[in-house]
Description:
- The complex is a heterodimer.
- Chain A is mainly alpha-helical.
- Chain A is 77% helix and 2% strand.
- Chain A is built from 23 helices and 4 strands.
- In chain A, strand 3 (325-326) and strand 4 (331-332) form a beta hairpin.
- The longest helix of chain A has 43 residues, at 333-375.
- Chain B has helices at residues 43-51, 93-104, 108-122, 137-149, 167-184, 195-201, 219-224, 229-235, 242-247, 300-303, and strands at 5-14, 17-27, 32-36, 58-63, 66-67, 78-81, 155-159, 187-192, 204-209, 212-218, 238-240, 256-258, 263-279, 282-289, 292-298, 311-316, 320-321.
- In chain B, the strands form 4 sheets. Chain B has a 6-stranded mixed sheet, sandwiched between helices.
- In chain B, helix 2 (93-104) crosses helix 3 (108-122).
- The model of chain B has no long low-confidence stretch (mean pLDDT 90).
- Chain A binds chain B through residues 1-2, 425-426, 428-436, 439-440, 443-444, 447-448, and chain B through 48, 51-53, 71-74, 78-80, 82, 84, 86-90, 99-100, 102-104, 144, 147-148, 151.
Amino acid sequence: MRVRAAYAGSVISFLLSITLIYAPALSGLAPGLSLAEIGKVLSQDFIRRAFIFSLTQASISSALATLIGGAAAVALTTISSRAASPIRALALLSFMAPPMIVVSGFTALYGRGGILSSAVPPLRALGEGFGGVVAAHVFYNIPLAMNLVYSTLVAVPRELVDAVRIYSGGRLWPVIKRVIIPYASPALIASYALTFIYCFASFAIPLTLGGPAYSTLEVYIYYFYRMLFDYEAAAATATVQLAVLAIATVLFTLAYARLPPPPVGRRVVAVLPGRKYVRTVSFAVLAVVAAYLTLPLISVVIKSFLDPGNGLTLRGYERVFSPVFDQAIGASGMRVVGNTLYFAVMTAVIAVSAGSFLAFIGGAVADALLTTLLAISPLTLAMGLLNMYGGFLPAPVLIIFAHTIAALPLVVKSLRLGFLRVGREIADAARVLGARGLFYFLRVVAPLSRGSYFVAAALAVVVSLGEFGATYLIARPEFYTLGIVIYSFRGVRDWPASYAASTVLLAMSATLLLLLSRRLERWM
Amino acid sequence: MGYEVELVNVSKRFGGFTALRNVSLKVPASSLTVVLGPSGAGKTTLLRIVAGLERPDEGKVLIEGVDVTDEPPWVRGAVMVFQRPALFPHMSAAENIAFGLEAMGVSKDEAMARVRDIVDLLRIRHLLSKLPDELSGGEAQRVALARALVLGPRILLLDEPLSNLDLSLREELRAEIRRIQRELGMTMLYVTHDQDEALELGDYLAIIYGGELVEWGDAMSVYESPSSMRAARVLGHNILSPDCAREIGVSANAPVAVPPHRILLIEGGGCRVTRVARRRSYGVVDVACGGTRLRVAVGYDIIDSIKVGDRAGVEVRRYSVLKRP
């Protein structure tokens, strides 16, 4: 009976993954799946340059993010979990911030006329071009590395830390060598691989901050598909990209499998000796990281009220919330805000429903499904969705489809963490008392993990609010979202409107994330 | 009436670790069999296999002669009570107790009537509206017991249910479990590593060591006269080679087990006291008789008069000849 249920769950999960991911992805890649097509795109100079740039910026961004995030994680263990709480909430906010907000933040802070770059001109390097792309990617991925390493260090047995400390006479190096490095290595490798995946297939950041000279392969997929209507070249470029992402995904999976189980309710162990200089350095590291993660977001808000050369203004917000048709967008601002919220709510409903199923009975198939999603970029998936379903499904449905797929890994992860709270003893007790299937889920699992449902829904909303690449490829103007109009307003140089749209989007994401920050800390 | 439970050549491995090896055991219907063994011996695995929570890699589980090896827990007529109460934290005690009935589709009225009967039996009616967080350890374990008993199981499996409770509560609940077993006549399999518990509760005693069933039989016979060396070791008996046994006047061609409480310590003699220790309600004296070391259990009335270095003699009142291993 049990075997049959597990088998049915795996089969349904597999069918779901075929419909949702593999078939669309293959359909998107199909036109380019020939050596001739791949050879053709690789023979073009600009694609080779984009390939090298993608590889270089991803390698550098990942190394920096992992290094800084790892240091921040170690520093985080030296302070109380109460003091660490705001830093972790902030990290979550920057990790989940929609990419167009990050772009706006880096422009507002380090770009031309930026708040910091006006005072310190060399900082302009962080606002555009190669430096801008790397700096924004590092901003995004410091939290990822920090949380992966922090979770690993929290799992270090207190007795081990105490023993090493006693036998090493309080010296720092033995603790680093015998505790931190062995325990944190899998997390560092996993975070490097995951950051590499995100950076290699990055779209919004290189599109806006990089410009034509610093475009990734993902940007060229968009360019081939949307501008030149060269579907074969787009698919061939996506195939090349997929090959690199697949290798990084395998590396990530191998490293991730060596991580300890999620530290549900574990007490933080200060792995470093509590010396004064250690605390001072830790505090300095955390202060710099906090500033790096906060300042771009604050700059967006400040700049949204500034009209270049004309002082304070609310003009940007008027344009964002205007009910009147806006030529630059192709729809009214109000409609865009409405679209954004509509897609977000629908995504949350569908992703949480499908995610519940996958998290509850998906098992190994669900894990595999979610891992393969890492190797498939949003634009590859969007191309596939258009190819497969574009003929008969309207754009809003496809957008929700794409957002749901983007949200599923986080949704399933948070639900599975919630389900872990049920514990083996409770699960066994329920089974011997005769509870099974839907009854068991509704009476035991769902009530005990209801907190994780809030988290899953919030994460799905935030992912939807921030999704840019797939939406940009699929949507016509009447279905544009705030992320896209930030880009459109940048295009027409209406900076107050672009920053205002960014601030509205930031407010939506931040409100949700901060409201659930205590619960989300456990998730991270 | 309870059901007869039989395990036939059951083996279970977890990765490279063999938890149970070729275990065969027949538990008579309506009896209380205690499974005794050190930590990691495979006791809990054995219980989980009977409950249907684990599937054996080899062998069969028969209940009333019917092969249930591949059947899920809920069709076996067996319910399990765990080491920790494992109450559903979001449900009141009443809802917890009624949970299994609800899962079986029993009507609300009937369920409540059965819950009332069982809480009266266990004298916990006053706890019905409380949440698990509001219950003490003993109360929670009573609710867990009620949750299992309300289903009218033919087999009740108890996995060290009292090990997290303090001594007086443990003794109180032990008596209650024995009373309920006699009153309801169900078959009970009770896992413990506590010998007091085993002797007080068990009609039968099964000793598990290193994943193997090393001794099984009437509880007092097994305790007083184990025939396996590993069982004697689990029970804490003195194990003597034939040569050593001869030094204290026991003649045998094979190793013997001498229970510490079956040795009489007498004043003067060829042995020397090497250690005197007090335990709860009895004392332990280690003596060296030539090359033979013995542990002797003595009453509190005489322990104050014994000191390390005293000369003493021993008289073995009962011993059993062991088979190897």
